Amino acid sequence: MNTRAPQKLEGWIMAQCYRLRTGGPAPPGWIEPRGKREWEWPGEDRPVGTPRPLVISEILLNYFKLEPSRTFHSGGPTNECFPDTPRFREAIALCNDTIAALLAEGVLVRAPSGGHRLADPWIERMSGR
After folding, report:
1. Contact between 58 and 33 (Cβ < 8 Å)
2. Helix extents (H) in 36-85
3. What is the CA radius of gyration of the chain?
4. Which end of the chain is less congested by CB atoms within 10 angstroms, N or C?
5. Contact 83, 69 (CB under 8 A)
């Protein structure tokens, strides 16, 4: 792993992407981002049962424990509306740096409709195959 990105956040992202790819249940208290519940994407042709990717809102809600505002902006960069605070900006920067490091290392791949998925070789490594 890239030592520039915090390893704890890297591990958390990888674990959640693995959980989504393998169909594991959400941890207790997991907050689903508004608009991503049921994985509804207008106009997207997606086979039923295809695992959805991890979106940045989930990282902000569940890892950083940020509180969204009541206003919902569909299609925004995080699919939530978070107050613009120093903590939010720091969390976004850390997410972007960590995701960029994982993408560069081939651990994550971008999903066509947004979000990120664990790359196939990493699914095999993490499942012990």
Report:
1. yes
2. 56-58
3. 14
4. C
5. yes
Main-chain phi, psi angles of 109, to 5 degrees: -130, 150
pTM of the model: 0.80
Torsion of Cα atoms, 48 then 49 then 54 then 58, to 10°: 90
Vertex 51 angle, CA 45 and 52, to 5°:
75
Residues 13, 59 contacting (CB under 8 angstroms): yes
**Tokens representing residue 41 in the block:** 């994407």
Angle between helices 86-104 and 7-22 (to 10 degrees): 70
Confidence at residue 18, expressed as pLDDT on a 0 to 100 scale: 94
Q: For 64-108, how does the pLDDT look when each residue is reduced to its tens digit (9 = 90+)?
A: 999 887 665 555 555 577 888 899 999 999 999 999 999 999 999
Kindly state the average pLDDT of the residues 5-32: 91
Residue-level pLDDT at 50? 64
